[in-house]
């Protein structure tokens, strides 16, 4: 919060008064002087230096309001958010509201003849508390309601508008407001900041007359805003700390000086779930037994790293990555934060190479379309759950990429083992999945071999194209999922296994169940959670984003100059339906990069199936093979926009909502563009 000299914060109408009193002759003279200087400044171009009765911040706000195109003689009503938008805004500002409401209640009890306002950083009103019925009726003429957006661009100069822009407390009275309709209204406001000094909102007290405010009014608002800010920042720090705890795959536990668990992140809760569903509030010794190492950190305040814990009553060993004391900057110890990992008991075998190196995380998945981002958000939310997960999507959409990202977020310390059920002959599928003992069948390796289920112990097993798994193996897999143990072919003992199962299919498994090609009990066991990956043709601008990404990575890998993708070639990419999805797009770009000339990819450099029959959609003035196209290959921005909108409308069968979503624009903007380009369907 910026604190300026008091004379810049207080209205000249109140700064010489210690309490409220009726307006006198001097007040009226000053009021008329301020009003006249505003008229002269805005109507006759008065030099700002001559406006000596007006504070600099108020003058600057008048000029900005004027530049927003508003006439100070005509009142401008602030827009009001629709119901859904307001509900979303309230959800986003939940922490601020919870911090502010107790103090607003105190103000309400103290001020019966005032309106109390709480806004967000954009000026959207979150709370509008009217002290009495008279104020409510008076407020109706301004349409100041919860959800209305009052900022300098909508209602001109007000105290809270200046607070939001300058980050400073402010008091405004009568003619200091931009609009004359405010008459004698007075308001005192102060900003509210978050933990990083970002503006979060403002608190404001409004009275029907500046004679009802004094210098103490602003002081009251500033002190209340500071109280709200302190509570808000404390809540925000607590939430940020919780988010930090959750943003790691390690099990993190915080305990106080008495050894009581105060927080445990999701991996820690999963690790301790068989002892306690909610470890918060439980003594650490109850869960882990007596641990002298942790006790020493609580007593001495000295950290420890890389130790091993043995939990007697569980017969389990854990890696203690670190125990860090929670000390303040004065050296006071308030407890510690413990980082734990399970010890992987699986013995290393020569076959461990079957665990693939996972290259993809959610951050590396390319594309910003709403459809893809929704799939990523759902997959990320499901990643930390230990239930079976089914990924549904056409071939080439990136199902294994999503599976790797889920593994990276949930079981990165274990192996990622993948098996494509459609690529393995039926007679070999059983040995691939379950492994075998030496001599189990003709041609078997003498020392035997671990199957994919065994290799995935402690990690993730990804079964791609699960719909192609032979029917006779499906009940065996179901039993493994239920019992969490596997027996190799030719073996006589069960091997305990713990893995996360992710399956994927480009087929409709429910249809296969109904036709008898897939077991219903296995289907429902696999489909505890489901992620649907959109086809590339549904992802709009992602096509060009991916194309540019492939151009860059291919040329870097081959060590050749990076060609430019011409706009005409880009239009062909956008129009094509991509039955092979992302994989087909990558192959098309590999082809184009290696066949194009003069550093530019033109339509004729793309595979024929992409350009076949598309020329009719291009403006007749554009010839993709002309010399001008080769030298420039750029359409105007309007031509590109017109073509993209026309193609999207065709692809969505003129569904405006769906087209607007794919084009990443509002429905009203799309309607305006359709009218401008005359794209209405006849």
Question: Can you describe what's shown?
Answer:
By secondary structure, the protein is an alpha/beta fold. The protein folds into four domains: 6-239, GAF domain (Beta-Lactamase, 2-Layer Sandwich); 248-342, Beta-Lactamase, CATH 3.30.450.20; 350-534, P-loop containing nucleotide triphosphate hydrolases (Rossmann fold); 537-677, Helicase, Ruva Protein, domain 3 (Orthogonal Bundle). It contains 27 helices and 21 strands. It has a five-stranded antiparallel beta sheet, with helices on both faces. A hairpin with a 4-residue loop joins strand 8 and strand 9. The protein is globular and about 110 Å long. The model is unreliable at 345-354 and 615-634 (pLDDT under 50).
Summarize the structure.
The chain has 682 residues and is α/β, with parallel strands linked by helices.
Major sheet description: 5 strands, antiparallel
Structural domain count: 4
Task: Estimate the helix proportion, in percent.
Answer: 40-55%
Q: Give the overall form.
A: globular
Query: How far apart are the termini?
Result: 58 Å
* Low-pLDDT runs: 345-354, 615-634
Query: Which structural category do the helix and sheet elements fall into?
Result: alpha/beta
Q: Topology, pairings included?
A:
Layout (H helix, E strand, L loop, with lengths): L5 H4 L15 H20 L11 H12 L15 H10 L1 H17 L4 E6 L4 E6 L2 H8 L11 H4 L3 H8 L3 E4 L12 E8 L5 E9 L7 H32 L4 E5 L5 E4 L1 H6 L12 H5 L3 H9 L3 E8 L4 E12 L5 E10 L27 H14 L5 E4 L6 H12 L5 E5 L5 H9 E2 L12 E2 L1 H4 L4 E5 L9 H10 L1 E2 L8 E2 L3 E6 L3 H6 L5 H7 L2 E4 L9 H17 L5 E2 L1 H9 L5 H15 L4 E2 L6 H4 L15 H5 L5 H15 L4 H8 L3 H11 L5
Parallel strand pairs: 11-18, 11-19, 12-15, 15-18, 20-21
Antiparallel strand pairs: 1-2, 1-5, 3-4, 4-5, 6-7, 6-10, 8-9, 9-10, 13-14, 16-17
Helix pairs in contact: 5-9, 13-14, 20-22, 21-25, 25-26, 26-27
């Amino acid at each position: 919060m910026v604190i300026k000299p008091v004379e810049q914060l207080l209205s000249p109408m109140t700064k010489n008064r210690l309490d409220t009193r009726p307006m006198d002759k001097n007040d009226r003279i000053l009021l008329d002087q301020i009003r006249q200087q505003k008229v002269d400044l805005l109507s006759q171009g008065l030099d700002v230096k001559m406006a000596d009765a007006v504070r600099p911040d108020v003058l600057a706000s008048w000029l900005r309001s004027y530049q927003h195109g508003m006439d100070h003689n005509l009142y401008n009503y602030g827009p009001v958010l629709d119901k859904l938008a307001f509900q979303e805004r309230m959800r986003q500002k939940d922490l601020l509201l919870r911090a502010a409401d107790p103090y607003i209640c105190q103000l309400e009890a103290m001020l019966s003849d005032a309106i109390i306002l709480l806004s967000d950083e954009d000026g959207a009103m979150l709370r509008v508390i009217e002290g009495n019925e008279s104020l409510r009726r008076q407020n109706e003429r301004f349409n100041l309601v919860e959800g209305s957006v009052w900022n300098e661009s909508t209602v001109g100069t007000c105290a809270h508008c200046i607070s939001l822009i300058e980050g400073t407390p402010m008091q405004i009275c009568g003619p200091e407001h931009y609009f004359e309709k405010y008459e004698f209204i007075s308001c005192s406001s102060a900003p509210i900041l978050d933990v990083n000094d970002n503006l979060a909102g403002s608190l404001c007290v409004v009275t029907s007359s500046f004679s009802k405010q004094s210098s103490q009014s602003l002081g009251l608002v500033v002190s209340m805003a500071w109280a709200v800010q302190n509570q808000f920042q404390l809540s925000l720090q607590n939430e940020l700390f919780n988010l930090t705890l959750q943003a790691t795959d390690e099990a993190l536990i915080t305990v106080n000086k008495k050894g009581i668990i105060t927080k445990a992140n999701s991996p820690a809760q999963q690790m301790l779930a068989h002892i306690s569903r909610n470890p918060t509030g439980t003594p650490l010794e109850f869960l882990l037994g007596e641990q002298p190492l942790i006790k020493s950190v609580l007593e001495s305040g000295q950290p420890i790293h890389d130790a091993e814990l043995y939990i007697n009553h569980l017969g389990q060993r854990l890696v203690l990555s670190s125990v860090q004391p929670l000390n303040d900057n004065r050296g006071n110890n308030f407890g510690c934060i413990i980082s734990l990992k399970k010890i992987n008991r699986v013995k290393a075998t020569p076959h461990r190479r079957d665990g693939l190196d996972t290259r993809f995380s959610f951050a590396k998945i390319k594309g910003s379309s709403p459809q893809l981002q929704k799939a990523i958000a759902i997959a990320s939310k499901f990643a930390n759950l230990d239930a079976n997960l089914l990924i549904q999507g056409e071939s080439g959409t990136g199902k294994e990429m999503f599976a790797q990202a889920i593994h990276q977020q949930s079981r990165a310390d274990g192996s990622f083992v993948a098996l494509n059920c459609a690529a393995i002959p039926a007679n070999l599928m059983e040995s691939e999945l379950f492994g075998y003992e030496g001599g189990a069948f003709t041609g078997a390796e003498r020392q035997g071999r671990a199957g994919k289920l065994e290799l995935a112990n402690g990690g993730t097993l990804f079964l791609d194209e699960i719909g192609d798994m032979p029917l006779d193996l499906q009940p065996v897999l179901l039993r493994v999922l239920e019992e969490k143990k596997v027996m190799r072919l030719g073996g006589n003992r069960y091997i305990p296994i713990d893995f996360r199962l992710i399956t994927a299919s480009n087929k409709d498994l429910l249809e296969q169940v109904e036709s008898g090609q897939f077991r219903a009990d296995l289907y429902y066991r696999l489909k505890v959670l489901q992620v649907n990956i959109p086809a590339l043709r549904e992802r709009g601008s992602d096509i060009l984003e991916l194309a540019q990404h492939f151009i860059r990575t291919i040329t870097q890998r081959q060590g050749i100059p990076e060609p430019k993708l011409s706009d005409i070639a880009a239009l062909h990419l956008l129009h094509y339906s991509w039955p092979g999805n992302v994989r087909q797009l990558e192959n098309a770009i590999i082809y184009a990069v290696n066949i194009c000339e003069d550093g530019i990819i033109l339509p004729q450099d793309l595979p024929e199936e992409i350009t076949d029959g598309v020329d009719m959609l291009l403006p007749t003035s554009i010839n993709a093979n002309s010399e001008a196209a080769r030298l420039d290959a750029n359409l105007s921005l309007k031509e590109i926009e017109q073509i993209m909108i026309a193609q999207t409308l065709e692809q969505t069968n003129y569904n405006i909502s769906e087209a607007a979503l794919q084009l990443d624009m509002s429905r009203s903007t799309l309607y305006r563009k359709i009218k401008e380009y005359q794209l209405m369907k006849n």
